[in-house]
Structure formats: structure tokens, C-alpha cells
Design a protein that fits this description.
The chain is α+β, with helices and mostly antiparallel strands. The chain contains 9 helices and 6 strands, in the order E-E-H-E-E-H-H-H-H-E-H-H-H-H-E. The protein has 2 domains: 88 residues, GYF domain (Dna Ligase, domain 1), CATH 3.30.1490.40; 134 residues, no CATH class. A hairpin with a 6-residue loop joins strand 3 and strand 4. Helix 3 crosses helix 4 and helix 4 packs across helix 6. The chain is elongated.
């Protein structure tokens, strides 16, 4: 039985079960490393499947798992020229999140953000009023401060939740997660890039978002550009 594992968002392998167990023993992979084999519906954490693996084979020296030589087309030399099987995009047990469920998640996020921004705006107004009193420029500073605060909160909301929970509160409510094509979580740089790319959906008069309704993997334009997928977990 051959296993694949993800390191830094890149698909590695295949390796046998004993080799995978040996790699864990040596610290090359951890309990949080995502692994996959043919027949599994989605990538899983190594710690969740470790108990099903055979014990690692004893080795005389810490060599690396054997890599089957491949030709320039990626075909296994011992497979008669056939390309070795690799896991495709594994969306999860219930598939991808399409246009309408993602729109509903975005509406939930917008309501939450509006409430947070309204509360933060009142606090900011009080702080500026106490600091400046009746100065003529108090209203201008209040308006500019609120604009900056809205942009910071909107960006921080998306980035922090996706970084630590792989989903915003709206998506979590509906059982959605944002992941890479190989099932790994997004890193901060990709999250920032995805957030900026979302603006293209507005520039294209909404077509960038509508793509999520017609793409076979339910990818919006920013998903295509950043190699992300929105999956359903229930």
C-alpha cells in the first residue's frame, strides 16, 4: 500500500506504510502532516492513521525512502512506461462549496463584520472626541480614522480566521473550509494574495465570483489564481 504525504503544500511520495512509519520515527513527518492513499476520500493527519501502519522496518543506516526512478515523462521505469498513480484533488467527503453556499457564507461574514465595525467605530469616535475635544478638524480625523479602521478590520478578519481555522466564521457556520489543492492549509502569504485577488471579482463585474458556479471544482477566479479550493466538510 503506497502513501503520499504533503510537505510545505507539495505532494511527496509514494512511500510504503513501513517507510512512512520510519519517517515519523525519524521526525521527518509529524502528527500534523497530511497523508493520503488510494481509496481515501480526503487527506488526513498522520496521527489519525498512524495506528493502522505496520511497524517501521529496521535499517542499518538512516537512509531516505527509496525513490523509484522515473523517465522524463514521470513514468515508472518498472511499470511498463505507465505514469505512477498520484492523488488528485481530494475535495473532502461532501465535495466542493459552490456559488450559493459561498455567497451565504459571505453574507454571514458581512453581518458579523458590520457589527464589529460599528462597535469599533463608536469606540474610536469616543477616543478621538476625548483626545481632540472641540477642535475643528475632529470630524475629519474621525471620518478618516473610521475608513482606515474598516479596511484594517476587514483584512484582519479574513487573514486571521483563514490562517488559524482554515475558514471565516461564515464558512465555519456552513461547514466550509479553504485549503490548497493537496489538502494543506494556506500560509499567510497565500491568504494575503487570495484576499487581494478577490478584488478581481469586482473588477470583472462579478464574473470572477460567478465562476464558482460553473467551474468543475467550484473555483472562483481568486481560487484559480491562488490554487485554493473551498470544500464542504459536512
Amino acid at each position: 500500500m503506497q502513501w503520499h504525504y504533503a510537505i510545505d503544500g507539495e505532494n511527496q511520495g509514494p512511500v510504503s506504510g513501513p517507510e512512512l512509519a520510519w519517517m515519523a520515527q525519524q521526525g521527518a513527518i509529524t502528527g500534523d502532516t497530511l497523508v493520503w492513499r488510494e481509496g481515501m476520500t480526503q487527506w488526513q493527519r498522520f496521527s489519525d492513521i498512524a495506528g493502522s501502519l505496520p511497524p517501521p522496518e529496521p535499517r542499518s543506516e538512516p537512509d531516505q525512502p527509496a525513490i523509484t526512478p522515473t523517465d522524463e515523462n514521470g513514468a515508472d521505469e518498472h511499470s511498463g512506461g505507465r505514469a505512477a498513480a498520484t492523488p488528485g484533488v481530494v475535495p473532502g467527503p461532501f465535495g466542493y462549496g459552490g456559488f450559493w453556499i459561498r455567497l451565504l457564507a459571505r453574507v454571514i461574514d458581512a453581518v458579523i463584520l458590520l457589527a464589529v465595525i460599528a462597535l469599533a467605530g463608536q469606540i474610536l469616535d469616543l477616543v478621538i472626541a476625548n483626545a481632540l475635544g472641540a477642535r475643528p478638524d475632529a470630524d475629519l480625523l474621525t471620518a478618516e480614522g473610521n475608513d482606515v479602521m474598516k479596511m484594517v478590520l476587514a483584512g484582519t478578519y479574513e487573514v486571521l480566521f483563514v490562517r488559524f481555522f482554515a475558514a471565516t466564521p461564515g464558512k465555519m457556520t456552513l461547514g466550509l473550509r479553504i485549503l490548497r489543492a493537496d489538502g494543506t492549509r494556506l500560509r499567510s502569504g497565500r491568504i494575503f494574495g487570495r484576499e487581494w485577488a478577490r478584488g478581481l471579482g469586482v473588477i470583472t463585474l462579478g464574473f470572477g465570483y460567478i465562476m464558482a458556479g460553473i467551474d468543475e471544482e467550484k473555483r472562483a477566479l481568486h481560487d484559480r489564481l491562488c490554487d485554493t479550493r473551498v470544500i464542504r466538510t459536512r
